[in-house]
Design a protein that fits this description.
The protein is mostly helical and 76 residues long. It has a single domain, classed as Non-ribosomal Peptide Synthetase Peptidyl Carrier Protein, Chain A (Orthogonal Bundle), CATH 1.10.1200.10. Helices cover 57% and strands 0% of the residues. It contains 4 helices and no strands. α1 packs antiparallel against α2. The longest helix has 15 residues.
Length: 76
């Protein structure tokens, strides 16, 4: 989780990603951020985020995103 928070903070240093739960719905992350995030997560965690995984529920908070990463790690 710590590495994910570092990735997120590098994108938007002014956001408290540990408590924010509206990253997509609140307009904090845009489509470019999602593409960047998917690329960095793929490289850092060695998982493949499929198109069907790119939904607001998986990207609205750091904890939801980390849960997705853990699920993908278990599948591989």
């Amino acid at each position: 989780m710590e590495r994910l928070l570092e990735i997120l903070s590098s994108m938007h240093p002014d956001v408290d990603f540990e408590t924010q739960e509206n990253l997509i719905n609140g307009g904090i992350l845009d489509s470019f951020d999602i593409v960047t995030l998917v690329t960095e997560i793929t490289e850092e965690f060695d998982v493949t985020i499929r198109a069907r995984d790119i939904v607001p529920e998986n990207f609205n908070s750091a904890s939801a995103l980390y849960a997705l990463i853990q699920k993908l790690e278990e599948e591989e």
